[in-house]
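Usage

Read records sequentially. Each one opens with the input sequence:
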Amino acid sequence: MGVTGVKVDLKGKTLKELTDLFSGMGKEPYRARQVFRWLYEKLATSFDEMTDLSRSFRQELAERFRISWLDPSETRVSGDGTVKFLFTLEDGEGIESVIIPDGERRTVCVSTQAGCRMGCRFCATAGAGFVRNLTSAEIIGQVCYAEKFLRERGERVTNVVFMGMGEPLDNVDEVMKSIEILTSELGFGLGGKRVTVSTCGLVPEMKKIFHETRAQIAVSLNATTDRVRERLMPVNRKYPIAEIVDFLRSFDPGPGRKFTVEYVLIDGVNDSVEDAHRLGRLLKRCRVKVNLIPYNENEFSPFRSPPEGREEVFREILHRYGIQAIKRQRRGGDIEAACGQLRGKIRKKLARQYGEK
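and closes with the structure output:
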């Protein structure tokens, strides 16, 4: 148990952390590997399930530790196959995760914070403010539930993206622990190409992820001038466009790999032909691909989606600069799949119900 007498949660622990914990109990390193596999490969929810451990060791584990498990308080399934979960955490906070099917791929989009402090004006999560960082247990718990959900359908998680509620690199230590678990051969066994961290552009933490993990990096640019980007994303005052582009030009993502630049197209704000040419000039010396994302309208924002065909115009212009550009399809619109929308609606409903401001 911890110093407060509360049982320590083993969910979210890396293999090294488990090895250190069990070493302090006088156990051999292979015991940590056994428990690690039960947690993340076999998705155990109790120590009784760990049948290759002796009964006395299982009892000792149960006396000292616990295994947390997230079950959704609400599940929504879209007509296009997208599935959204709302999880209520132990302190009552709500977070969202999404499973996105695409051919043989099953991508899980996970949250890293309850709320967000970055203040991006177009984001539903930012409108609810920041509450706290999630623990690695709460981050990995989202993947564990998604994996269980998919296994029951004869499917598996193939990719994980840190693109849900919150700014992942504002919670970089817990995110890095989660990446280590996801990419461990004894855990989820996902290759580095299958794990992507999306950021609004916290450059020092981007360098940390680049140097210390195998995950891919996606950076949200969303504008081609600092004036517009500052309006949309206050973080631009600290890390302006030039600093992000310098990162993209200075680092080699590896053989056959590219950084991803995410560009949310917002009608009348950043979607002009001039914006497309400026973006091409900014990125033409970078090893990047660009995800063009039509804005997902929600009640928390005044912005609107671009007119039909605008993404194609943007894509064609970027191709002239030799830049690979992909139009991301709108997914899960009928279930409010954009992260923060469902949580925001429920918080708003509760506020009306209980007279909160």
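Summary fields computed downstream for this record:
- The chain has two domains: 8-66, 72-351.
- Residues 267 and 306 are 4 Å apart (CA to CA).
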